[in-house]
């Protein structure tokens, strides 16, 4: 599963807002029934489930920073040269991210433990 708990996203959102005047955009998709585990996040503008592929690319390339799980936005950022932090589980991000991209890949080396290790 390539998800991060909504409480962890909310904590990150709160920390960003406590230090920066930032507009945070929530990308992503909704389930087939239109529901989402992230619908209750505050301090974000959600475009989840609203963008076509080319619209997502256009939004990503104008961002100052992308923070994403191992999904489309972090890979688009890497390919387009947009600074990003990718949150990976057991897959070493060095295997999938472009070598010269401004993406920092963080990953947990134990699947059942959310212990983040910086990719060296």
What's the short version?
The protein has 120 residues and is of the alpha/beta class.
Q: Just name the CATH architecture.
A: 3-Layer(aba) Sandwich
What does the radius of gyration come to?
Answer: 14 Å
User: For the residues shown, what is the average pLDDT?
Assistant: 78
Largest sheet: 4 strands, mixed
Query: What shape does the CA trace take?
Result: globular
Helix and strand composition category: alpha/beta
With strands numbered from the N-terminus, the spatial order across the biggest sheet is: 3-4-5-6
Record field, number of beta strands? 6
**SSE order:** HEEHEHEEE
The tally of helices reads: 3
Helix content: 25-40%
| Low-pLDDT runs | 110-120
| Terminal residue distance | 24 Å
CATH-assigned fold name: Rossmann fold
Number of domains: 1
CATH class: Alpha Beta
CATH superfamily: Glycogen Phosphorylase B
β content, as a range?
15-25%
Describe this structure in words.
- It is a single chain.
- This protein has 3 helices and 6 strands; from the N terminus they run H-E-E-H-E-H-E-E-E.
- The chain has 120 residues and is α/β, with parallel strands linked by helices.
- The protein has a single domain, classed as Rossmann fold.
- The strands form 2 sheets. The protein has a 4-stranded mixed beta sheet, covered by helices on one side. It has a two-stranded parallel sheet with strand order 1-2.
- Helix 2 packs across helix 3.
- The longest helix has 14 residues.
